[in-house]
Amino acid sequence: MVDYDFMLSELKRILKDKGLKFTSQRELILKTLYENDGHFSPEDIYMIIQRENPDIKIGIATIYRTLALLEEEGLADSLSIDNGGKRYELGLKKHHDHFICTECGKITEFYDDVIEKRQEEVAKEHGFKMKSHSMKIVGICKECQDKNKQ
Amino acid sequence: MVDYDFMLSELKRILKDKGLKFTSQRELILKTLYENDGHFSPEDIYMIIQRENPDIKIGIATIYRTLALLEEEGLADSLSIDNGGKRYELGLKKHHDHFICTECGKITEFYDDVIEKRQEEVAKEHGFKMKSHSMKIVGICKECQDKNKQ
DNA sequence: CTTGATGCAAAATATTTGCATGCTC
DNA sequence: GAGCATGCAAATATTTTGCATCAAG
After folding, report:
1. Please, what are the domains in chain B?
2. Tens digits of per-residue pLDDT, A30-55?
3. What Å distances lie between residue A1 and A21, A40, A72, A92, A113, CA to CA?
4. Measured in angstroms, what separates residue B74's CA from nucleotide D2's C1'?
5. Strand C and B27 CB separated by under 7 Å
6. A134 and B132: CB-CB below 8 Å?
7. Preferred mutation among B95, B103, B133 to probe A, highest tally of A CBs within 10 A
8. Which tens digit of pLDDT belongs to each residue from A86-95?
C-alpha cells in the first residue's frame, strides 16, 4: 500500500505545479481518505473530519472542491452509486472494481486480470480511446446471504 | 429486437399482478423509451413527451415514479452518469455495457461475451450473489478522435 | 502584499413527497 | 364506488457558486 508521506508529497508537488496552495483543509481531506478505508460520500467525509477534529472549522463546499481536485489529479477515485451521490476512496491504489451489496450497502473491491485485459481489447476493437473504466457487480454479499439463511 | 406489443402486454400483466392500474401515462412513457433509441434522463423523457404530445398533460413526478416502476420490473434499465443523474433506456434488451464519450457525451453500447462470463465467475469465486452488473468504459469515441485530428 | 482558498449562504440541480382530484377497474 | 395514479407545489437532497475575508507563498 502506498504510504501517506508519498501521497502527501504528491499532493504538494501537484499543487505547486499548478500554482495552487497547500492548505490544512486539503491535507486533512487527503489524510481522512487515507486513514479511513471505505467509500465515502462528501457528507461522510465532512462528518468524519468534524468528529475527529472538533477544533477545526471546515465547510462542506471545501470538501466538494477538494475531492474534485484530488480526483482530477488521481489522488482520489470516485464511484457513482445508484441512489444519487458519489462515493470517494483513496486514489493511487491498484485499479479494481466493486461489489455493491443491496442489503447492507457494503462496497467491496475485487480485481480480475481477465476482465481488465479484455476491457482494453474491447475498447481497441471499437476504436474507442479508453481513459478509465469501472465495473460494478450488484447483488448480495456473502455475509448477508448467510444472515438470510439463519 | 423485442416488439412493442410484447412490452406493452408485459406492462399490463405486471400491473395486473401487482394490483396497479394501466394508465395512459405509463403507456406513453414505455412507448417513448421504445421509440427513442438512446439513454435519457427523466427530464429528457419529460421533454420528448411534451414535444410529441402537446395535447397531453403529464407531470415530471409521474415520469420519475414510472421510470422507477419500469426499472424495478425490468422494462427499463438505468445507468448512472458521473455528472449527476441517471439515464434510462428500454429494458428487456440483450444485456450490454456502455462506452461514454467525455467529449460529446454520447453513450454507445457494446457486448462482450468474455467479460460477461468472467463477471459471473468472479462473483461466484467471491461468494457474491450477483443480481446485476454494469460496466462503463469512459474515454473518447472514434468520431471525436477523428474530429480532433482535423 | 498578491492571489488563491475558505466558509457561509444563496442558488442551482435533481429527486421525492403530501395531498386534493381524477381515472381505472 | 373504491382505491390507485396523477399533477402540482412544496419539501428534500445534493452539488455548485458568489463573495467577503483569510491565509499561503
Report:
1. 1-93 (1.10.10.10), 94-150 (3.30.1490.190)
2. 999 999 999 999 999 999 999 999 88
3. 27, 19, 21, 9, 19
4. 29
5. no
6. no
7. B133
8. 999 999 999 9
